[in-house]
Amino acid sequence: MGCVMKKQQSGFTLIELVAVIVLLGILAVTALPRFIDLQTDARIATVQGVSAALEGAGSQVYAKAIIGSVDNLAGGNANAKVVINGVDTLTAYGYPTFDAMESLVQLDAEFVKAETDPAVVFGYDRLGTGAIVAGGCYAQYTEATTTGSGATAVLIAPIVTVVTTGC
Q: Where do the coiled-coil regions begin and end (predicted)?
């Protein structure tokens, strides 16, 4: 009596293979938007880094201005400057002026700079026009100023503003 034994099947059937491929496709489609959003997160982190660089440069210049006793001179005063890396840096009340800030932070060429006295803006050109769009992706440095005059004058330290709504 010849007994024929059925061989045990091994491996995947075609239907199982198609089901796995469809499942992987669905997972990829749901995960893709999260990975695409990493560019936005990277731009936001970079702009926040620029903001920190602006604040750090301002603090270092202010410390040198105090040492050099030029921390109480208004912007535009010929003596209101400190030497940073061998270069005269103009100051307003001891902090860097808005136009001196570019040489202090030395940003990459990917950043666009826009000056609007008494502020300078460093940001991304998201539209390819060579300009920073309002509500875009930038850090703004507004130089120090004072309110009042004489004995009632109050120093307003520089303000660094970060806008990331358009990143």
A: none
Residue 147 lies in a domain: yes
For 40-71, how does the pLDDT look when each residue is reduced to its tens digit (9 = 90+)? 888 899 999 999 999 999 999 999 999 988 88
Tell me the per-residue pLDDT of 78-94, one tens digit each, with 9 for 90 and over.
678 898 888 888 898 88
Contact 142, 162 (CB under 8 A): no
Contact 47, 137 (CB under 8 A): yes
Number of domains, the chain: 1
Element housing 162 (H / E): strand 159-163
Domain that holds residue 96: 16-163
Bridge partners of 154, per DSSP, are 147
pTM: 0.73
